Amino acid sequence: MMAMQFPNLDPVVCEMAEMALAWLDRYWDAEVGLLKMEAEQDEDSTTTPVPLVHHIRETIWYALGLLQRQAEGDYERALQAIQTVLSYQFDEPGKPYDGTWYRLSEEPHPSEDARIWRDYDPNWREFIGSTLVIILLDYEANLPPELVMGIERALRRAMRGALVRRLPASYTNIALMHAFLLDFTGHRFNDPDWQSRGEAYAREIYQLFEPNHAFAEFNAPTYYGVDLYALGLWRRYSFSSLLQRLGSDMEASLWRDVALMYHAGMKNMAGPFDRAYGMDMQSYASLIGLWIWMATAKECAPFPDVTRPFAHQHDFAFVPCYIGVGISVPDDVLPHLRSFQCERQVVRTITNRPHRVAHAWIGQHILLGGEETEYNKPASGQFHPATIQWVGEQGRICWIRLVYHTNIVINARAEKNMITCNIMGVDGDHPDIFFRIFMPDGSRHSLQQDRWQLSGLTVDVDTRATFDCAIQATPTSGGAYYDVRYTTGDIVPDTTIYFALTTRDVADS
């Protein structure tokens, strides 16, 4: 198997790889041996300055990119980066964070009562571990033997901790990488039990996927990118013919879901989003945006201008992993990635139990999304069950999304010109209902009980809830968002709170 190197790449892919590595070069801290970058910021983040910190996961991605580029000094820098990353792994059997890595060099060691996500991230086992596998498979012959042994020790620790975690197969993006790591480490270390576990776990993932050819993490612009990376690992690097076969099937199906929900003219996917860090893929780094860049060209890509600050920018560092696995897009998908094909109604079953269905209307200048959740979807800042995106008067993407609080559950549907939401409070609560609206700087607007007059769009609102206020949040880069609040104190507890949002045709607004 030939290792991926910049001179051998397709010109579009090579351009992306060179831009990503040049962008990362400026964050290299030679004294520490890590990338020193801003902390994570989502699209809704304000313009407040963010401190620079040393990132562990992004550094191993950069090390892989250095080995791929092979410019003067890259090899020595890559070795330093790999060795530094290995030094930040936890080797503490019996601890819940055993085998994972620090996220930042500045993080304190987890305490005795360490809590997942707050004090450590278990997913770094899979993200960093899978990157180390690519480094071994593509560049082992060029690495010092003691560094190879260090990587092998790190992979053993990562799998030791990952197996104790008992990761559910429904946690799609991490589960896909986990299955690959089981397969690889089982083969590498001659452990038939790990190999058989890897194949059994792959079958379990596929059994969840097969009934509707959909992942439980449905329509996730960032995590779809991780899914495609992991499936690329199955396709390109797996020793198991089972993983190769199932991975290729799921990879093609996932690309067709992307095509179904994507509007190439607006450079955005329609909602609803099970997990999303933003509402405009031109304002934050989404990993599916990088895949579309690879499949088409930079000018077609739903990705921010990398010469300026952008939200979630650390995900641009993932590019070397994409280069490693390569891209495989079905021929029938490519036209949808290059240009808008047609208006369409989408009704897509995600899971049968619970019954979850995504609804979307994809129009010439507007995208509407809603998700039926059977009133059981846990609240999350990343889950957006009712969404509107449109092209505003300034030619920029404007958007609306329901802010999904812990004290509501929701069923929503979208069709041409309308979203309907049935919302219930939890435990007899009278919840406040918020809709967040983003518009670029200088946009005119009027927000009333039954009508929102916005830049390029009018939304008529039908509800028994009471309009309370519209709060302008701290401006973000290039615009501001408003939280429109409705109160429900006059509605009988444990009854459905109804909203119908009717949009006038954008061209007529």
From TrEMBL:
The species this protein was found in: Dictyobacter halimunensis
Identification of the protein by name: Heparin-sulfate lyase N-terminal domain-containing protein
